[in-house]
Amino acid sequence: MNKNELAVQMVKDAGVTKSDAVKVIDGFVEALTEELKKKDGSLTLVGFGTFKVVEKKQKKGRNPRTGEEITIPKKNVVKFVPGKKLKELVK
Fold first, then answer.
1. Cα separation, 35 vs 51, whole angstroms
2. Under a CB-based contact definition with an 8 Å cutoff, are residues 50 and 78 in contact?
3. Measuring CA to CA, which residue among 36, 87, 14 is closest to residue 44?
4. Per residue in 44-69, pLDDT tens?
5. Residue 25 maps to a domain
């Protein structure tokens, strides 16, 4: 499902206009992005799950072309942990 398909589903389920649905999706993404930019930022939707930033440590890797060992620097990544209700629905 992409953004447009989600907006169409919201129109059916919530009875809002498509432009309002797109605004809500954009607002959610913006709020999530702003929260995750903060140090120790996270967003929890009870029953659905939690979005949080975790730091991946520096590690050793290999260049697939040359086989040369390289160092992969540490970086922050977004992690989603599903909530209990979502886990049960997906089973």
1. 10
2. no
3. 36
4. 999 999 999 999 999 999 999 999 99
5. yes
Does residue 39 surpass a pLDDT of 90? no
Query: With the C-alpha atoms ordered 26, 28, 33, 35, is the resulting torsion angle positive or negative?
Result: positive
Q: Both tokens of residue 90?
A: 């997906």
State the chain's mean pLDDT as an integer. Answer: 94
8: containing domain = 1-37
Considering its fold, how many domains does the chain have in total?
1
Assessment of whether the complete model's pTM goes beyond 0.85: no
**Domain-embedded: residue 10:** yes
Closest-CA residue to 21 (of 39, 34, 3, 33): 3
Residue 40 has a pLDDT of 86
